[in-house]
Amino acid sequence: MNTEKDFSPLTPNIVRALNDKLYEKRKVAALEIEKLVREFVAQNNSTQIKHVIQILASEFALSQHPHSRKGGLIGLAACSIALGKDSGLYLKELIEPVLTCFNDSDSRLRYYACEALYNIVKVARGAVLPHFNLLFDGLSKLAADPDPNVKSGSELLDRLLKDIVTESNTFDLVAFVPLLRERIYSNNQYARQFIISWIHVLESVPDINLLDYLPEILDGLFQILGDNSKEIRRTCEVVLGEFLKEIKKTPSSVKFAEMANILVIHCQVADETKLTNDLIQLTAMTWMREFIQLAGRVVLPYSSGILTAVLPCLSYDDRKKNTKEAASACNHSLMKLVTSEDDEENEDEKSRGTGSPSTAEGQPKMEGDGNDMLNASQESVGFSNISFFTPATADRPQVNLDLDGIVQVLDRHLHDSSTGMMTRIAVLKWLYHLYIKTPRKMFRHTDSLFPILLKTLSDESDEVILKDLEVLAEIASSPAGQSDQASSCDSTDSKLVLKVPDGPKQGQQPNAGPKTADGSPSTPSMNSYFYKFMINLLKRFSLERKLLENRGAFIIRQLCLLLHAENIFHSMADILLKEEDLKFASTMVQTLNTILLTSAELFQLRNQLKDLHTQESCALFCCLYRSWCHNPVATVSLCFLTQNYKHAYDLIQKFGNLEVTVDFLMEVDKLVQLIESPIFTYLRLQLLDVENNPYLIKALYGLLMLLPQSQAFQLLSHRLRCVPNPELMRSVDESKYMDSKQQVACKRASHTNMDYNELLQHFDRVQSKHLEVRHQRIGRGASDHPDRKLL
Asked: What Pfam families does the entry give (predicted)?
């Protein structure tokens, strides 16, 4: 430094001492400066005061010489002490050169700068708040300083500044938040500790409403929650917990919509191997649960994003039990927000028209929401595989359900083979709920959902299949799915129109459809998707024989409960009548027949067919009979069920012309077992009335003659030996008894009017086709086929 330069009003001795390398001499000079400045204050000489500060700043604190810089710092501190309460008038000039020294490469000089600023702030107190951003910026750098002395000094200054902010009511939060938002993304551990401690302090001050600005710092807080330091994570948890408590107290003032997407991001784990991500996910999911409960329908535009985050968590194991429970609560609460009012068209949909949305696969197009902080958070997170959703319309005044986005999310989870069982169940529950609450809008998506719903029937879980069947049953029976378009069905031969059984479902109006010539008058009419469902279900059974063997009966029985047994059997019989794969048709008829005769779910249908007292029951019998002809033994059992014993006997007479295979005899064996079951109790009792049921006895003897000497043969032979002598069974008043039997016969005949000869001819035609197919197989060298194994 040039000692010849004029530094007045500083004396040469003061200047020389300020430049000295010894701290004690610089301290003496500082005391002289303090004395000098006090004199200027007493004289109210602000010009000289400014001149002294300017010399200390430019010639000393900003000097190239390290000792001069140290002298300048202690001199500026001395000026502040001398000024006292008037230091607020000169704070800009006092603070800026000191903060510049925070960047000095010399750690001792950084420490002296910290010490000087401490003294300046201690004197000025609340007057420093207009310069708070500068102080905070400087302190945030010192918090990560590698020198422990500098760090210790910065912590003292930090505590002092916190005390000043806490006791002040003039803190400018609006000016500070942008700086906080910028610094909160620091990856330095000490900087994070500094940031989170300040947020904790500001959040605790009653006069500072940091909650209004939470959307701008929430993403950064979740970043800090993933820090490797346990202490920092604990502090961040406390801060987030305090914010959540405040949100619960004042939900009306919370900006839920602006924070929804931030939570969606952090509810999704990018790296499951990192334990801190579990804490982030659990915390975000807990917040999401509270948001849904507090905000209600405000979160509906974000529902697709929420489901993207929530659904995978439902399949977590006990290691993430808390996250799973929170996700389940989120899912349940969100589902309750969807009501029937969401099925009404809003103004945007009316202006666009009601055309079906595109069913092209892929992610929904993502739109920016105009939130700079949120965009920055996306970059900082670095979750390249995380789905991010925005409301369908940015400035929509009315809250609308993002149905298209929800359906895309649900569809994607069903297509993903890695989706867990509980997640698949939740997806199907969502689809069922949407079809119940918003049927009209949901049917725009049915064509795209239908294939994957059918495929899901092959799922390994029975519970998944049950929920899938509930969805398909709702699609097939909802009045909203009624369509006159022929394209609704996969086959141009689908002439049957079925209707809802026994009155409408709750909340639905009856939807009677026209009857066609081929439809049974007794068959209720359902919507256009019912027949499409039946056709595709049988196609799936045909292509996946294991599905038919392992789950076929289970699926059909459940459908009979969910829809109407008559609908199911009537439509399947009609479809199988046109089936070209005769072997599959025979197997399917055998399956349906077993279900009809043994399942408790079919009790009402069996009673309807037992007596054939009505025209409707007779029409149903004829419909079933024509398809049952694919399987001769099943046809006979149907005749037994409907008490058409003469026709059963006529059919058995024709068995002599059929090819008797091992499979055929096994079916006869099963029929004998069924005759001994409770289902055919009435048939066994009718053996007591020998005179009026001769063809029943003949038919049973016909089955006996078909069987080889086996256990079934012995069983049926023993039963027939129990048939009583007709002479012993005559009633005392035989005339009245015969009149009663004739009345029953007349009542039965009045409704039947069935051409049994035509039915026998149909049986012959079907069996001729089966015989022709077998001969073709032999011609192709398939003589070793299992169906060719003769007894």
From this structure: Vac14_Fab1_bd, Vac14_Fig4_bd
